[in-house]
Amino acid sequence: MLKKILIANRGEIAVRVIRAAREMGIATVAVYSELDRNALHVRLADEAFALGGQTAAESYLNTEAILKAITDSGADGVHPGYGFFSENPDFARAITAMGVAFIGPPPEAIDEMGDKVSSRKAALRGGAPIVPGTTEFCTDAKEITDFGTKFGWPVAIKAAFGGGGRGMKVVHSAAEVQEAMDSAQREAKAFFGRDEVYVEKYLTWPRHIEVQLVGDQHGNVVWISTRDCSAQRRHQKLIEEAPAPGLPDGVEEAMGEAAVKAAKAVGYFNAGTVEFIFQDGEFFFLEMNTRLQVEHPVSEVITGIDLVEWQIRVASGEKLPMTQKQVLAARRGHAIEVRINAENPAGGKFLPSPGPITKLVAPDGFGVRFDAGYETGDEISQYYDNLVGKVIVWGRDRDVAIARTIRALKEMVVEGIATTIPADIAILEHPDFSAVTHSTKWVEEVLDLSHIGTAPIVPA
């Protein structure tokens, strides 16, 4: 078992890992930028090392500074969290070259699944259905035009090494291709350091459904649950739930099996998520996130499995604690997670709202959990992700979970910054959400947020 873990991250996920490690009797090491000197994750860790700088590039993406902190602290394991270096195979290789355990998948699996083109090939090897698209990078606009002509418009141009909607452009006609391709490549280069793109058919009203899985270093892989993450804006998730509701008989099991096969096709171990899009009774492989995701708690809540604990045990060389049959037998009820972002949703604009949190009162009560990286008096910086925290709610069924989540959000108090709470409540109270007729485009195309306009807009 690992003895000391350095968390190469900040905010909510750093706090989450520190707490899990503490329960396991493992010492923790935090790293921090100048802006995060007094942050919650720094206050909770056993040790903390300064990275310097303010921006992510100067601190949490400063490889040299992080590697020095690992050496100086004597950590024998590194948890990357999500974002930053979590899906960077070179970082994983640098960690393992030091003789330190990387609490994540092998670099080779990150390489193959991080490239959206090669991940499609891996999915095909595992027998997972994929959306029609190219299995090679697109190097000129004609390839995209020919694809659109063959399979029909619209199509999506996507960054091969990206995610989170960055570097993705939807094209409705041949006349838009060149400009959209140039824009996608520029955005991909800016966010991911590489400008390769590919194209695939764009579905018009899909749901986003993903499968949480965990594998060990002995060849075992199990899927934990499905999650529905269709409530999004700008391709970024707002609300997630588990298990995915309203699926036809047999579809959830088929998704789980397809996810496991895709993971095994690349020799995957540790936690990961295979994302699918679902429309008209069919599902298609979208991509694999080779890390722990923001929404992992909903899978934990319905199974009683601590996924961070499992990550640490797998990185220590242990076998998975449960079989596939045991995991599925452990599932109970329904869970919903709401991301509380420092954004003003007035008029559906979701403008950033950084600044000091003058008051934060977390929701409470039966079945309510709050994972956060901030407390009253802390400040949301313009330089980092604006996730304040996550409200995670369990109910014996979906209706109870929805009602309990609405109650929890209405009791929550956040002052000093605007948050997405009013939009979250509007989503949960909408009949389309209850009926599971929403899609990944529903928030932007259907949901009316015109009544939200009282919160102050604080420009970033």
Describe this structure in words.
The protein has 460 residues and is an alpha+beta fold. The protein folds into three domains: 4-86, 3-Layer(aba) Sandwich (Rossmann fold); 132-201, ATP-grasp fold, A domain (Dna Ligase, domain 1); 207-445, ATP-grasp fold, B domain (D-amino Acid Aminotransferase, Chain A, domain 1). Helix content is 33%, strand content 25%. The protein contains 16 helices and 22 strands. The protein has helices spanning 11-23, 40-44, 63-73, 89-97, 107-114, 116-125, 141-151, 177-192, 251-265, 296-303, 307-315, 324-330, 398-411, 421-429, 431-435, 442-445; strands spanning 4-7, 27-32, 47-50, 77-79, 101-102, 155-159, 169-171, 197-201, 207-215, 221-233, 236-242, 270-279, 282-289, 334-341, 343-344, 351-352, 355-356, 359-361, 368-372, 379-380, 387-395, 413-415. It has an eight-stranded antiparallel β-sheet with strand order 13-12-9-10-11-14-21-19, sandwiched between helices. Strands 3-2-1-4-5 form a five-stranded parallel β-sheet. It has a three-stranded antiparallel β-sheet with strand order 7-6-8. Helix 4 (89-97) links the parallel strand 4 and strand 5. Helix 6 crosses helix 9. The protein is globular, with a radius of gyration of 21 Å. The N and C termini lie far apart (43 Å).
